[in-house]
Amino acid sequence: MRAFSTISVMAIAAAIAPLPAAAQAQLPAHATEPFPVTIEVDAARSAGPLTPIWRFFGADEPNYATMKDGRKLLKKLGELRPGHVYFRTHNLLNTGDGTGAFKWGSTNAYTEDKDGKPVYDWTVVDGIIDTYLARGVRPYLQIGFMPEALSSAKPGTPYQHSWRPGFAYELIEGGWNAPPKDYAKWGELAYQWTKHNVERYGRDEVKTWYFQVWNEPNGKSYWTGTQADFNKLHDYAIAGVRRALPEARVGGPDVAGPGGKFMDAFLDHVANGTNYATGEIGTPTDFLAFHAKGSPTFVDGHVRMGIANQLQGVDAGFRRIAGVPKLKDKPIVIGENDPEGCAACPGPQNAYRNSTMYSSYTAASYKRIWQLAARNQVNLDGALTWAFTFEDQPWFAGYRQLASNGVDLPVLNVFRMFAKLGATQLVASSDGETPLDDILKSGVRGKADVGVLASRTDDGKVAVLVWHYHDDDVAGPDAAIALKLTGLARQTKATQWRVDGSTANAFSAWKAMGAPQSPNEKQYVELERASVMHPATLPAPAISNGAATIRFALPRQGVTLLVLE
């Protein structure tokens, strides 16, 4: 969650403002005419497996999970794929009273008595994990950050930071991000926590979790030690976890970006180096993790997304891991996978978050991530969306989140569409789709990207996802889609789900209400209703020799899913 610029709290207003008239006026008059796009899907031809990489989520603030809106949202995430959705969060070992704040959280899991002996208290962190599991979500358990009693920070260094939106990102530094004074105690903490989890939740449950140490140790905001210090921190924690649960799924290091020389050194260490904790060669590694972020800007009165930046980071991370023979087949999780780097940071360049720009970007980017994994021949397990909710904040305040005050944002509906995709990808093409190499090089700055991803479900349905995306958040013409299907066995029922500017969009409904900051009960119900995707049954397409054509319009920034059964 590294920020790419210092941004102003003044831009919260920009995040909820309608598109400037100047941006609308940039379009020529003829641009309102729909443009034709032909999409072809062969329902009888497999293009290989389609791993559900979208089922990972996360946030800086662990304590929000147990609050009213956090619990509500976790339930919705768990319903996407019960038992297979994972949540990663920072700050689970921080010292404090469990009060959530921006980019902060605490559990008071570790303190020491007057003689320096460890005192473990799992009450708060148990409550967080209990909340996950009760809602069908499992932990991607980050071991961090440093408890105050173990911190090696210089005397006088404040332990908790006082960062808030609008502050320079570097001000999140504090005693929490320092190496331990005693690595043996650090390793014992990881052991005791894992042992407790096994006793509380059972071995079979805990071995399904992911265990990972720290966050973005290649940047000074999260780690004040050296590379060697981090490798040592990692080894001691992983040794502690594996001592308590030899089958635990362990990995890391969740570096910022592809990780550069830091990642190279880490990969060499876990593959070939001497383990600091055990003295053996190498460190147990079941998965590898790095981060990838886009870089939106604000130009000519509108947001311009940076999808190319994110995909270049994904590609570089895959290539770095693929280049290490001992590790190239390990599962990979893109541990933070987002349009930009700071969920809690406002700014005019981040005004895409409430709208369908976020949802269409998500659909367009995930297709390319699957493609890059296939191109690099890596074992992609997950791409984690670092967005959750911020409790008791203004409505649609401009943070990167999945819901505002308990009401879903349009982007969450794209994950519901992903959840309806099957495990087998089908051969599909669109003459309106931006080629992978072009979007890698320069994003979507010319023609719009009208793309497709098709799959077959376990029960034989064909699910076709279509999106209409452009990097520039300005108005544009609809795409007139001709979806040509072949390989159909019999008469087909077609159901369509949509999310666009006027459908499954609580943000649009809220603006139409006059943007109330204290909606009453009736308005709240209306907003919840407006956020929901409702399936529409389309006229059954006429099938001839196993082929049929379905025609529909797709607005700019719209995403639709058609399910044929």
Number of helices: 14
Q: What is the number of beta strands?
A: 23
- State which percent range the strand residues make up: 15-25%
The amount of helix comes to: 25-40%
Give the N-terminus to C-terminus distance in angstroms.
Answer: 41 Å
CATH architecture of the largest domain: Alpha-Beta Barrel
Largest sheet: 9 strands, mixed
Order of strands across the main sheet: 21-20-23-18-17-16-1-19-22
CA gyration radius, whole angstroms:
24 Å
Broad CATH class of the largest domain: Alpha Beta
**Unreliable stretches covering 5 or more consecutive residues:** 1-30
CATH topology label of the largest domain: TIM Barrel
Question: What's the shape?
Answer: globular
Query: Mean pLDDT, nearest integer?
Result: 94
The name of the CATH superfamily of the largest domain reads Glycosidases
Structural class: alpha/beta
Describe the structure.
The chain has 14 helices and 23 strands. The chain is of the alpha/beta class. It has two domains: 23-45 and 426-564, Sandwich (Immunoglobulin-like); 51-71 and 81-397, TIM Barrel, CATH 3.20.20.80. The strands form five sheets. It has a nine-stranded mixed beta sheet, with helices on one face. α9 packs parallel to α10 (356-376). The longest helix is centred in the middle third of the chain and has 21 residues, at 356-376. Residues 1-30 have low confidence and may be disordered.
